[in-house]
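Field log, afternoon session.

UNIT: design team B
ACTIVITY: writing a sequence onto a fixed backbone
BACKBONE:
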């Protein structure tokens, strides 16, 4: 697979799902079909793998490597691939970064180490990102978790990271507080060396994009990439009427995907793809479990409301 050497993380970036067989092994044909389906959407900037949406926490190193190989074979020639770096230790994170670059990835999405929930310092964060940057020269996206989680980076820490790790080019901003989100967009994208802010607030995507994000990176793009791409274009064109029309279609899916418990969001997206005839089954790995029939019915209703599934088709699948 060819790396896209000039890629800077921006624009509309879906995060792919990872289908499994009933025995919990990776469904490679299903994954290939899913990648091709998502990548066929016009207006995408890249695709993300080995992240929350691919249930990376349950995947071995060998499985992550195989996910990268398949993605490169299916879409790597046309779209840059962003590879997640999910690791609690910096040495493991560096190994993943080297593996991703060797596999042809064009950027890294770095998740915060779980031990940071017990406390962190700027020096700890800097050591972690320097270990990754020393292992790979790929552009880095910092996954900014909510500060309340303990894994989010305070503003002073972010400034130090940006000053001392020049390969950091973007953040995936999960900041749930609107004024803080806006402040980060203004300050980071206004730097002498701009840091693009990619929204991950898909539950309120229109509001987030209107604040000026230079992109979005979203698991729901695995289902509604076309609507997200059209919404992003409408916002960039200052076409508020079209943006609101598209948001009215996105809203029903956001309402069901991001319901409580939040951890089931990608579980629900798999069920949506089954209802749309794009996946044969919606299997998740433990500790996740299959959602209820009542919740699947709510997802079906949302897809109909969004204009993604015909009412007659939905009734037929319900009867089946």
């Amino acid at each position: 697979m060819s790396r896209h050497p000039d890629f800077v993380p921006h624009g509309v970036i879906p995060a792919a799902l990872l289908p499994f067989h009933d025995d919990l092994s990776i469904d490679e044909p299903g994954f290939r079909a899913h990648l091709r389906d998502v990548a066929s959407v016009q207006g995408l900037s890249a695709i993300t793998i080995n992240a929350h949406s691919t249930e990376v926490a349950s995947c071995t190193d060998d499985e992550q490597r195989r996910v990268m190989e398949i993605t490169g074979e299916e879409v790597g020639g046309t779209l840059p691939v962003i590879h997640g770096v999910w690791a609690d230790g910096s040495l493991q994170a560096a190994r993943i970064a080297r593996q991703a670059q060797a596999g042809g990835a064009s950027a890294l999405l770095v998740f915060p180490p779980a031990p940071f929930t017990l406390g962190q310092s700027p020096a700890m964060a800097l050591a972690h990102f320097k270990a990754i940057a020393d292992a790979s020269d790929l552009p880095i996206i910092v996954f900014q978790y909510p500060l309340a989680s303990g894994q989010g980076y305070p503003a002073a820490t972010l400034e130090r990271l940006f000053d001392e790790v020049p390969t950091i080019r973007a953040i995936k901003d999960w900041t749930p507080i609107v004024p803080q989100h806006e402040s980060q967009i203004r300050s980071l994208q206004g730097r002498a060396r701009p840091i693009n802010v990619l929204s991950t607030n898909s539950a309120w995507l229109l509001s987030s994009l209107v604040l000026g994000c230079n992109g979005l990176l979203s698991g729901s793009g695995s289902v509604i990439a076309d609507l997200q791409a059209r919404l992003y274009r409408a916002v960039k064109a200052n076409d508020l009427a079209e943006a609101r029309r598209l948001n009215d279609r996105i809203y029903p899916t956001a309402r069901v995907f991001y319901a409580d418990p939040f951890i089931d969001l990608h579980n629900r997206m798999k069920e949506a793809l089954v209802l749309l005839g794009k996946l044969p089954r919606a299997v998740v790995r433990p500790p996740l479990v299959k959602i209820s029939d009542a919740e699947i019915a709510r997802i079906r209703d949302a897809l109909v409301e969004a204009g993604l599934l015909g009412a007659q088709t939905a009734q037929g699948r319900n009867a089946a």
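LOG NOTE: The chain has twelve helices and eight strands.
NEXT ACTIVITY: expression trials, pending approval
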